[in-house]
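Tutorial, part two.
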Amino acid sequence: MIRQVWINLILNALKYTRTKLVRQVTVTSYEADDDIVYTIADNGVGFDMKLLRQTFFWSFNASICQEEFEGTGVGLSIVQRIIRRHGGRVWAGSSGR
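Running the prediction step on this input gives:
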């Protein structure tokens, strides 16, 4: 299941950076209190922070980029369900849009 989380997150980053001349996807980890935090950052199209509540229930770019990016929009929802099942948390942020 955790393998599917990484696949979904990395493919998502690659999908939304494909319009960039130079794709940049960065995977990091760090300790915060008693947790290990993993991050995946990219220089993709970004998303509107007002849509953050919808991020893990439906693709946050589904309505914005539907004709430009293929997919069902459920990848991040799957990520959230798996991580919660393992006792973790998932969140998103954007420096774009």
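Confidence is low (pLDDT under 50) at residues 59-64. In part three we will examine how such features are distributed along the chain.
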